[in-house]
Design brief:
The complex is a heterodimer of chains A (340) and B (343). Chain A has 340 residues and is α/β, with parallel strands linked by helices. Helix content of chain A is 30%, strand content 27%. Chain B is mainly β. In chain B, strand 29 (312-317) and strand 30 form a beta hairpin. Chain B is 0% helix and 54% strand. Classes of the chains: A alpha/beta (340), B mainly beta (343). Chain A: One of its GO terms (molecular function) is nucleotide binding.
Chain lengths: 340, 343
């Protein structure tokens, strides 16, 4: 795995933001807003859709989605060949970019995009996935979420919300308060920990979506007190979040076994996972982050003196069995072994 | 045995710079072609390094290939390709919008160009002779077999071989995975692909017998046969691996490991089949190897190391006596070797 350890100096890699969202959700508007704002950043944009992005200062590259299976026996492990190619060529140019934006089509699966940053060493060495930002059209998203897909076909709107680190709830001017509340509810039912940013005409404070370090293990957990919000299931939705918050220290070996088995057997259905854990005997927090079956973990900050050892983790995915996850995780507690 | 310290430094034949980050080098006859990432191509005199001509490929460049007689060059890039004619410097740009990864000359009259998911076979002036049907993904590499009658095309899921009479492949070598680089043994016996899944996949052309060398720490994006076709060098790890393809091939054998760089950025066999290899690294070093010395499985040390300041972007040999290195900062350097056979 290629994530640098926390002892290294500040991450020098170029941050990459992935913008997803359905056609008409305001991706191009947001993109243009990012590009025209006076932030002094040199930005490269990789577009999957023919948008009207065109700013002198930015390099805009077109790409067509090419999803490649990895030959490693992991069926959900796919990468985006087009991005590997384009990002590789971009990194060989003399000009340095401060930020890279990848715009995906409204129908794109975010998993191969995210997995590309885990799976390709050349990319992982030079670029870091900063966040997946999903634009949601407040007026039309429910319709997309409710769309019934044929057996075996993913509802892309659900997937894009499940994968998101930030959701820009756009076009709030076109709906009333109760509609906003309903949409927010639905988003939370799928992805309980995501930050929702309400917006009109994609007008947002850019630091809320750029260089937020949502894939940076330390920052994810340090800055995100809402990371684990228990959700009530008002909706009959197959894609949900399961958050676990448990005090105590974990037996590392049992944890590895449980997590390994879980991701191997249920990884296809687990879209995202992240957590901050207390390993028995470890002076530092252990933080991990996963996309489907791929997982990276590292030690984060020190536990403070007298700080309660606490484990917080969240799984976002399809047909998650909350009880099994809770029990399985509880069995990893160091004390669970002694009790058994 | 290598005694780096006691050997005199290699003479620098010339040293020049281009105004871009070079991404590819190619040498034929008396010319060197340099591709800059932003899309300028430089044609240099191999003996002196002096600039002879430049041309532009809007949208950037990925590779450049001179014709065997050095009377033409083909440059490819993210949004198309360009053809250059030495006689009068005329350049024709084909802004196809499709990703052109590479070009390969069959002979002086035909060049194959990767164009999106297809490969085009063109005359040196750009007239299309024939084209392949689209592959499963953007074409990543090309190589000619059978004296330029058969074209091997690497893309996702397979290496497909094409001939002029039909756009469909005449032979398909399937293997699920993203084939990043292609090497065909000059003997015509082997087709090898470097893979995104950190392996080398090998087919024996005679019967399509397959072999996979897996377990590389990283993707294999550079691989090359020497002139004899008995040796294959590959990246995919900090060590360059060199496989023995003589006899029955590398099945059941271990490669020689060449340790010098943390990250390998270029590989080039010295022409002539003496087993001499040049490799370049992200740290700026160029290493010269007696790459076929010792036993299988042994770890070799470089015969020579040439230090540089910035990442080695590309290496090429302009004949057996002149090694040309391009560095990321635009520097192009040529080193003269003491003789045609010594290192």
């Amino acid at each position: 795995m290629t994530t640098p350890t926390s002892d290294e100096p500040r991450d020098q890699r170029v941050p990459v933001t992935v913008l997803t969202g359905f056609l008409g959700s305001g991706k191009t508007t947001l993109l243009n807003r990012i590009l025209t704002e006076q932030h002094g950043l040199r930005i490269a944009v990789i577009e999957n859709e023919f948008g009207e992005v065109g700013v002198d200062d930015a390099l805009v590259l077109d790409s067509e989605e090419e999803i490649f299976e990895m030959n490693n026996g992991c069926i959900c492990c796919t990468v985006r060949g087009d991005l590997i190619r384009i990002l590789g060529a971009l990194m060989r140019r003399r000009e340095k970019f401060d930020h890279i934006l990848i715009e995906t089509t409204g129908l794109a699966d975010p998993a191969p995009v995210a997995q590309t940053f885990f799976m390709d060493d050349e990319i992982a060495a030079q670029l870091r996935l900063d966040a997946i930002v999903t634009l949601v059209d407040a007026a039309h998203v429910l319709q997309h979420l409710d769309e019934v897909k044929p057996e075996g076909v993913e509802n892309e709107a659900v997937e894009q919300i499940a994968f998101a680190d930030r959701i820009v709830l756009n076009k709030t001017d076109l709906v009333d308060e109760s509609a906003i509340a309903e949409v927010t509810d639905r988003i939370r039912a799928i992805n309980s920990s995501v930050q929702i940013i309400p917006a009109q005409h994609a007008e947002i404070y850019l630091p809320q979506v750029l260089d937020v370090g949502a894939f940076d293990l330390e920052r994810v957990l340090a800055e995100d007190p809402s990371f684990l919000t228990e959700t009530e299931h008002q909706h009959d939705t197959t894609v949900t979040s399961v958050g676990i918050d448990l005090t105590g220290e974990l037996d590392e070996e049992r944890l590895n076994r449980w997590l390994g088995t879980l991701l191997r057997t249920k990884g296809v259905d687990i879209f995202r996972s992240k957590g901050i854990l207390a390993l028995a005997g470890a002076p530092k927090q252990y933080v991990f982050q996963g996309v489907h079956m791929l997982l990276v973990g590292e030690f984060g900050r020190h536990w403070h003196d007298g700080e309660q050892r606490r484990n917080r983790l969240v799984f976002i995915g399809r047909n998650l069995d909350r009880e099994a996850l809770e029990c399985g995780f509880a069995d990893c507690l160091a004390t669970a072994g002694a009790a058994a | 045995m290598s005694i780096t310290a006691s050997e005199p430094d290699l003479a620098t034949a010339w040293d020049t710079a281009v105004d871009d980050a070079p991404v590819a080098l190619n040498a034929r006859q008396d010319l060197i072609a340099v591709a800059g990432a932003a899309g300028t191509l430089w044609i240099l005199d191999a003996t002196t390094g002096a600039g002879i001509d430049t041309f532009e490929l809007p949208g950037g460049a990925l590779s450049v290939a001179l014709a065997p007689d050095a009377r033409h060059a083909a440059a490819t890039g993210p949004t198309g390709y360009a053809l250059w004619r030495r006689e009068d410097g005329r350049t024709t740009v084909h802004d196809t919008g499709a990703w052109s990864a590479t070009a390969a000359w069959a002979d002086n009259e035909r060049v194959a160009i990767a164009a999106g998911r297809r490969a085009l076979v063109l005359t040196p002036d750009g007239e299309e002779r024939w084209a392949t049907e689209p592959a499963a993904s953007t074409v990543t590499d090309l190589a000619w077999l059978r004296q330029g009658r058969r074209l091997a095309v690497a893309a996702y899921g397979a290496v497909r071989c094409h001939e002029r009479h039909t756009p469909k492949p005449v032979m398909t070598y399937p293997y699920i995975g993203s084939h990043l680089a292609l090497a065909v043994a000059p003997t015509g016996r082997w087709i090898c692909s470097g893979n995104q899944d950190a392996s080398i996949h090998i087919w024996r052309t005679r019967d399509a017998g397959e072999l996979t060398m897996s377990g590389y720490p990283e993707k294999v994006s550079r691989l090359a046969f020497d002139d004899t076709g008995f040796w294959l060098a590959a990246d995919g790890a900090p060590d360059v691996t060199v496989w023995d393809f003589s006899g029955k091939g590398p099945a059941g054998t271990a490669p020689r490991s060449l340790r010098c760089h943390e990250t390998i950025t270029a590989l080039a066999w010295r022409p002539g089949g003496g087993g001499h290899l040049a490799s370049g690294g992200a740290d700026g070093t160029v290493a010269l190897w007696r790459a076929t010395a010792g036993r299988p499985e042994s770890r070799l040390s470089p015969a020579r190391i040439l230090d540089g300041d910035t990442t080695v972007a590309a290496l090429t040999w302009a004949g057996p006596e002149l090694l040309v290195s391009a560095y990321r900062d635009g520097r192009i350097r040529a080193h003269r070797l003491p003789s045609r056979t010594t290192l």
